[in-house]
Amino acid sequence: MATPFVSILCALCLAVLCGGAVASPDSTTLALTQELEKARQQGPADPVQTKLAPPPGQFVEVPNSTPRVLTLDLTRDANDIWDRIRRGFGMPDLDTPLVADQQLFYLNRPAFLKKVFERGGRYLWHIVDELERRGMPTELALLPMVESSYNPMAYSRAHASGLWQFIPSTGRSYNLTQDSWVDERRDVIASTAAALDYLQSIYDMHGDWHLALASYNWGEGAVGRAIQRNLDDGLPAEYSQLRMPDETRNYVPKLQALKNIVAQPELFHIELPYVANSRHFVSIETPAGIDLATAARMADMPLEEFIALNPSYKRPAIAEESTLIVPVDRAARFQLRLAEHEQNGKLWRTHELQRGETLASVAQTYGLSLTQLYALNGLNVRSRVGTGYALLVPHGVDPDDALDAVRLIPQRPEGTGLSVTARGLDKPEKVEAKKKGRTKLATETKGANKQVTKRAGKGGSKENRKVTTASSSKKTATPVKAGSSNSAAKKKAADRKR
Q1: Which of 399, 225, 419 is nearest to 315 (CA)?
Q2: Which of 147, 320, 352, 357 is labelled catalytic?
Q3: What local confidence, expressed as pLDDT, does residue 346 receive?
Q4: Counting beta carbons within 10 angstroms of the beta carbon of residue 337, is it exposed (0 to 12), middle (13 to 18) or buried (19 or more)?
Q5: Distance (Å, rounded) from C-alpha 85 to C-alpha 125?
Q6: What is the pTM of this model?
Q7: What is the DSSP letter of 180?
Q8: Could you tell me if 160 and 167 are in contact, meaning their C-beta atoms sit under 8 angstroms apart?
Q9: Cα–Cα distance measured from residue 326 to residue 337, given in angstroms and rounded to the nearest whole number
Q10: How confident is the model over 24-45, as pLDDT tens digits?
Q11: Is 179's pLDDT higher than 50?
């Protein structure tokens, strides 16, 4: 659209070139003045209207409205633990309707997602660090969310326990101590080492992470038979093609759904809680005789949070020199207070039950009620204890703090009775004279001094405790030696997980 100035100039030039009659100077000046006044009233020309249209065939660029694609800059340090996890993703993606279903399940529960991710924050750095050290895909750091929702106290109907949900037999195969003092299936450090050993071994067996995960849930033997069945039928031996229980069929899709959410949380309008990419806790050597509630106070921590870092203890006090886990920023102060506490002589000890003693008489000796003695030692009225059984008792210390800790420690007696030996409380189970070739050695007992029942054979638990006898006449007590609650899990076993 031409401006008024251009129109006037063109008219004057045309008149001169043509040589025709022109208006008088007065009329020309009047016309020019009118055009200028009109231009001033209209204001400047609209730039949008004056812009030329693109030539035919030329495309106009339209802004891209698609979501931003997540990219990783590996030249810089990870922003947080989630960034670090994304960098280590190494499994092939699974894209099936089951994955979409599981993704929808999680996304419809944002409060649950937030709670579980926050709970896992205290463990993730250690798990990711172990995975990277072993060269394993970091998707596996999300597996405890599928298994236990990052709850080390989780316990299943199949008697699986801990972050990684080990059943008793598999836990024993990977040297996870399970006795009346500790259950290392709940220990964060020991169980993580055992789980990664196990996962690596079944990955080496199948050469496929999806099959390895199915084996972790269903058992490598069951997966092997499913693979062979497909091969015999001329079908592919891939995970997605196998016939398997519904729980296993949904197992890998659950992990894939969590991976998708962590990979692109902004795509799903999810905000992951901030978890620093730095070491969260350290292990501190701890003397025998301290209870968990006192240790929590020394670390300036709520008792619940302290037990969440030290969930393997089944009694509220440590019976031997062991290790406790505390946050990095509280480790130095915790060590100083431990040294001071050790000097005051107020500690917990063990009392070895003597012939003729009853639990009631022991409770009276140490100023406890029978109910308190039961609670401190994870016993109940059906528990059968005998000569040589080591009882946790106070030695100049108020038991109330330890009893508070007892309320946060799961006690799960099973069956109609508890099999208790002089070495400690074995796995609770129904006592049978014979079961699957294993024999029971028993002697009759009378009164309060009940029989110690032992099971001979492979299933018996190993005992690493050295018990120093405390004379019942002198009523003295000494610390009991126990296997370390944080011993490293070892390799090579082939028990199936479930």
Answers
A1: 399
A2: 147
A3: 84
A4: middle
A5: 10
A6: 0.70
A7: S
A8: yes
A9: 13
A10: 444 444 444 454 455 445 544 4
A11: yes
DSSP state of 252: H
CB 456 within 8 A of CB 133: no
Check pLDDT > 50 for residue 199: yes
Residue 237, both tokens: 């031996």
Tokens of 100: 């979409």
Q: Is 242 helix (H, G, I), strand (E, B) or coil?
A: coil
Question: If you compute the radius of gyration of the chain from its CA atoms, what whole number of angstroms results?
Answer: 37
Residues 6+ apart with CB under 8 A from 232: none
* Residues composing the chain: 498
Kindly state the tokens that stand for 146: 């599928």
pLDDT score of 367 more than 50: yes
Burial environment of residue 315 by CB neighbours within 10 A (0 to 12, 13 to 18, 19 or more):
buried
Lowest-confidence pick of 76-90, 357-371, 403-417: 403-417
**pLDDT, position 342:** 86
The answer to whether 183 and 165 are in contact (CB under 8 A) is no
**How confident is the model over 57-108, as pLDDT tens digits?**
554 454 454 444 455 555 678 899 999 999 999 999 999 999 999 999 999 9
What totals of helices (H) and strands (E) does the chain contain, helices first?
19, 9
Q: Tell me: the pLDDT tens digits for 275-309?
A: 999 999 999 999 999 999 999 999 999 999 999 99
Q: What is the distance between the alpha carbons of residues 368 and 360, in angstroms, rounded to a whole number? A: 9
- Tell me the DSSP string of 135-171: T--GGGGGHHHHHHTT-TT-B-TT--BTTTTB-HHHH
Average pLDDT of the residues in 472-482: 38
Q: Which residues pair with 161 in a beta bridge?
A: 155, 166
| Residue 446: φ, ψ to 5° | -130, 150
Torsion sign across C-alpha atoms 231, 237, 240, 243? positive
* Annotation marks residue 271 as catalytic: no
CB-CB contact of 488 with 378 (8 Å): no
| Cα–Cα distance, 309 to 329 (Å, whole number) | 14
Position 343 scores a pLDDT of 86
